[in-house]
Specification:
The chain is an alpha/beta fold and 235 residues long. It has helices spanning 17-25, 45-55, 69-79, 98-108, 140-147, 172-177, 190-201; strands at 4-10, 32-39, 59-64, 84-87, 93-94, 113-121, 126-129, 136-138, 168-171, 205-217. The protein is built from seven helices and ten strands.
Amino acid sequence: MVKISVVIPVYNVEKYINRCIDSILKQTFQDFEILLINDGSIDNSGQICDEYAKIDKRIKVLHKKNARVSAARNDGIKMAQGEFVSFIDSDDWVDPGMYKGMIEKAIEHDLDVIMCDFKKTSIYDTEKRTHSIRGGFYSKEHIKNELYHCLIMFENIEFPPTISNCVLLYNLEFLKKYNLYYDENIHYCEDSIFGSKVMYHARNFFYLKGKHYYNYFYNPDSTTNTYTEKSGIHS
């Protein structure tokens, strides 16, 4: 069994997918598999995925009819052979030390869920983002007392802490134990709902606050129809 299954839904991202996959292959932690879920792309994304699979046996590709991002992530959960699972958007990328930093804490504390911070990168600049909750370890009681109230949006909370599933690493056995999958009928903010369900069931949680491992790409001038949690939908 590998330690981490990296699930990447792929839809019309031929301009970005190389950067995404290469950033994972360059990790300082190498005990992973990459699951590329080609969700009916009509550009060259599927072919690019196949080329990567030819050169690295850790990479597996599923070609399917378009069913949107929730279904693609669910396919990844079902395919995953790792102890932990990570979801990465195909137009984003990760820093080389991301999985090493997260898996070490996950093993040390026998975690169900661990989260890092991210950098929002556009064609103009890069901005570090963090959440207002404290860093460190959360027991079940800590989760109930400190996080339950902010798992949905309130007037003074811009985004729930777990809205971006891509900065989270999940224990796969935990997800399957509680039958935690994405609702495939929801096409907007599906990651927020999934994150809330996960935190409701989690025994524990760790927030690597200040560790900006994930690079969230935002192109305000883009006219592409890729799907990610940035838009929640695609045509």
